[in-house]
Design goal:
Layout lengths: L2 H12 L3 H20 L4 E3 L3 E3 L19
Antiparallel strand pairs: 1-2
Helix pairs in contact: 1-2
């Protein structure tokens, strides 16, 4: 399911327009993003949780020639 399909399904369930639903969904995503950028942990009971995790850098390889990148 992509974002457009999610908006359409949510609008149908809520009985609102797709335009309004898209606006609300975008606001939710922006709020989650802002919280994560601020270093906060976002937990939505019954759905999932989001947090930023620091990971060490890794070396990658170009699959066509095996060169490290």
């Amino acid at each position: 399911m992509n974002k457009k399909e999610l908006v359409a399904r949510a609008a149908g369930k809520a009985g609102t327009t797709e335009k309004l639903t898209a606006k609300v969904l975008n606001a939710v995503f922006e709020s989650i993003t802002e919280a994560l950028e601020a270093g906060d942990h976002v937990q939505l009971i019954g759905f999932g949780s989001f947090k930023v995790k620091e990971r060490a850098a890794r070396l990658g390889r170009n699959p066509s020639n095996g060169e490290q990148i």
